[in-house]
Design a protein that fits this description.
This protein has twelve helices and eight strands. The protein has 341 residues and is an alpha/beta fold. Strands 1-2-4-3-5-8-6-7 form an eight-stranded mixed sheet, with helices on both faces. Helix 2 crosses helix 10 and helix 6 packs across helix 12. It is globular and about 55 Å long. Belongs to the peptidase M14 family. One of its GO terms (cellular component) is extracellular space.
């Protein structure tokens, strides 16, 4: 029998499943086959299970090449689990918020070191959403061939098992609540770390633009020296099949607030510091030197901690009435260059 291939992210996920036994709700949302191996699609949850309370989800590894995304989510989960035995403030926080994790959305891609899943499908181009304007050639999603990057899958074919599992988890744990946030960790775009929010399929503003602006303002007040550019993804490029667009569109007009965010780590900065990384597919998307990887894993913990606390306390800052109108106007000016009335 062939011995299973060991992968750092999958080994760490298994270690955290063991560490969290008894305090973490762990579920397999399905499985994928890669050669002789069958890999589970794990979700983990801790904290309040009451559907009336808010929730936040953390996702990584949608693209198998972007391993650092999974590492960031796993580092945050380990940080929480190792604090649980002694940190009363964390225990109190978890009575007021639900935390949901899917650290390795695409274990087959992680194992094979590919952006796409083992079927050659780019999971972040796999949802049934088409852009309402021209998209960049190939990058915006294509249906020509799984041999080319950014393949959406064939028309009329159900979503891939990994994408469907993510959507199932979001629907059952996040978007069904009055208030929820998600953060999906990626890498590979530009010199700066960015926080993107929907939409990717259109340049029109999202329904919850005012709430996103209020969250951004809260973060800037409490972390004035943060490293992030906060913007709608559509400011950079449009794409077909974005999973977060699809999930947000499902709750449009429902009165619920779901804020899907993407942490897009600027991997070009790592390449600039170590140009030899250009000669490695892994190096283009991930820091290759140990101390730089450790720095990245530390760098984003304050952002994830802020989001968790802001979610738990959303009723204290979520804009209503005139405040919501003000935030909407400021957001239009900031991100869509629309003058206020």
């Amino acid at each position: 029998m062939n011995r299973p291939v060991s992968v750092v992210e999958l080994d760490e996920l298994n270690a955290l499943l063991a560490l969290g036994a008894g305090c973490v709700d762990a579920r397999s949302l399905g499985e994928v086959e890669v050669g002789q191996q069958r890999l589970q699609l794990w979700s983990l949850a801790l904290g309040a299970a009451d559907d009336e309370l808010p929730a936040i989800g953390f996702f990584g590894g949608v693209h198998g090449l972007e391993r650092i995304g999974s590492m960031v989510v796993l580092a945050w989960l380990r940080h929480l689990l190792t604090r649980l035995p002694w940190d009363d403030s964390l225990r109190d926080l978890l009575t007021r918020v639900r935390l949901v994790f899917m650290p390795v959305v695409n274990p087959g891609g992680i194992l094979r070191r590919t952006r796409a899943n083992p079927q050659g499908v780019d999971l972040m181009r796999n949802a049934p959403v088409d852009a309402d304007d021209k998209v960049p050639y190939l990058i915006g999603g294509q249906r020509v061939s799984a041999r080319l990057p950014w393949f959406r899958g064939l028309p009329g074919v159900p979503m891939q098992v990994e994408a469907a599992a993510l959507c199932q988890l979001v629907t059952s744990e996040l978007s069904c609540r009055r208030f929820a946030v998600s953060v999906d960790c990626h890498s590979g775009f530009g010199m700066q770390d960015r926080i993107w929010f929907p939409y990717a399929h259109t340049r029109r503003p999202i329904e919850h633009l005012a709430e996103l602006h209020a969250l951004h303002a809260l973060f800037e007040q409490s972390h004035p020296h943060h490293p992030y550019v906060f913007e709608p993804q559509g400011m950079q490029y449009l794409a077909h099949g974005d999973l977060w667009d699809f999930l947000h569109l499902q709750i449009a007009g429902s009165g619920r607030v779901f804020l899907p965010l993407t942490l897009e780590m600027g991997s070009w900065r790592w390449v600039r510091k170590n140009p030899r990384q250009l000669f490695s597919r892994q190096g283009i998307f991930n820091p290759q030197i140990a101390h730089r990887q450790q720095r990245v894993l530390r760098r984003h913990l304050p952002w994830l901690d802020f989001l968790t606390r802001a979610t738990a306390s959303y009723q204290r800052w979520l804009p209503q009435g005139e405040a919501r109108q003000r935030h909407s106007s400021l957001a239009q000016q900031r991100w869509f260059q629309v003058a206020s009335a």
